[in-house]
Amino acid sequence: MHKDNLKKETSTETDAAFFDLVKQLGERDFSKESDKEGIFLKTLKNINESEGEKNMKIINRVKKIGLAVASITLVITIGMQTTFAQGFIEKIIAQISLGHVTAVQYENDGIKEYPVPAALKGKLFDKDGKAIEILKEEAKETYTAQGEKIDSFEADGSIVTVAQAEKSRAEITLTVKDSKTLSDYTCFNVILPTYLPQGYVFDKAEFYKDEKGIVKDSKYIELYFTNQTTAKTIHMQQRFADEETSSTMGTDGKVEKIKINGLDAILTDNSSLDWEAYGNLYFLSGSKTDGAVGRKELIKIAESVK
Amino acid sequence: MEEVALKGYPCKYEVKEQEFAYIFETYYKRVYNSIYYRVHCQYVSEDLTSQVFEKIMLKIHTYNEEKSYFEVWLFTIVRNVVNDYFRSQKKHQWISIESILHLKSESKEPEELMINAEAKDELLEAVKTLNVDERNLVACKFGANLKNKEIAQVLGISESNVGVKLYRIMKKLKTKLREEV
Questions:
Q1: Quick one: A299 and A185 in the same domain?
Q2: Cβ contacts (< 8 Å) between B174 and chain A: which residues?
């Protein structure tokens, strides 16, 4: 190794004749004294503001809102290095890592509403058929011009209606209603919570089909517990803990480290929990219950998974 | 607010940001150093480095793998940005490099200034005496860490020419350093 390096350095006549000088010049690192992070931020800002890309920032914001509207929590991400880039964009307030799961809390930019991006103008309507021009952080239901309920939209103008989303969801997922057979589909043992808040019962499980359209030894399972009177849903995801299923989530809600049965867990925005136990990753969310299932209930449900 | 913000497939804009972060992280040091070897000023180097990365990200779709190595493409942008800078300096001569240097100094603590003054080494002073073309070569070779073959492509001269020129530069620097001792 050392020999090779030497060889490389003396590869040209010049290098050989002026070995010391070459070494000195090559080892000089002026960048050490420079403001690297500042330059990164400035450049990113300039890129954002540049022609053609000027919507980038707003797109990201809209995306957040768009996702708030979306109900699908496909966790097929894997090992994305998003945290690095995101960390520069917004100030990180807190970061909690449990090994396979990391939560990063960013500073809230304080902006609660954004104008509808150009590509979506005239395409979003409220339930009374009135065109929406401002998107608010508290996601409201949106509809197409034809009055179809929208599931999600992207800043590039693409819109997915609830009907379309359900259709494609049916294509990529397998729904199972029998809670006794769940572990037959997974590569790990699915453990259902023994406690559920009053009114909530197991509704269904979903598995992602592989390329052949079948489900076998799946690393993921989505569980839905529905309240029979209010129709609100508690969502739970269990996944086999490995590199593929590990994830990083970003939020401007509060992230907190708490204990579930003595193990570290991440409580996000008082509305969802992530923890790792028995070699599996558990995600539990009450965000679709309009606050009915909050911190206390989530912890109670989580603690009953054993 | 929404815990799923980063889950799911990254949309193309996120990819773009990741791509930028990756390229920045990979090439920052080399880009900065190659610029510094030409302008010898932290303030200007930082500004030009930012300009370079902005250009790279806005033009990255025009990069053609078959035409050139990525690094050759990248450092050609560096060369052009610095050239443009010098050209604009000629046009606006009342903003001399000296005045910018001065501007930068003001923001520093006196103590830091002392250290900076001390650190001002003879080698760097010797590099400053080189002409524009020569400094350009030093920047490519030692700042950007490019191979002679790549330097030839960036500067549009032959590879053997690069070797000959570098040899002369080294000789010049060595003489200069001896003079100073």
A1: yes
A2: 18, 21
Domain span holding position A226:
165-303
Structural domain contains residue B1: no
Residues 6+ apart with CB under 8 A from B129: B176
Q: What is the pTM of this model?
A: 0.47
- The partner residue sitting opposite A13, judged by closest CB among B58, B145, B167, is B167
Write down the ipTM of this complex: 0.74
Residues A169 and A295 in one domain: yes
- HSE-CB of B42 using CA atoms within 13 angstroms: 17
Q: Are residues A53 and B49, on separate chains, in Cβ contact within 8 Å?
A: no
B171 neighbourhood in chain A, CB within 8 Å: 18
pLDDT tens figures, A46-92: 877 764 443 444 334 333 333 333 323 333 222 222 333 333 344 56
3-state SS string for A162-222: HHHHHHHHHHHEEEECCCCCHHHCECCCCCCCCCCCCCEEEEEEEEECCCCCCCCCECEEE
The count of domains in chain B is: 1
Closest CB from B5, B20, B54 relative to A64: B5
Domain count, chain A: 2
A21 assigned to some structural domain: no
Do A65 and A125 reside in the same domain of the chain?
yes
Query: Radius of gyration over alpha carbons of chain B, in Å?
Result: 19
Last residue within a domain, chosen from A126, A160, A194: A160
Give the residue from B47, B117, B113 showing the smallest Cα distance to A35.
B47
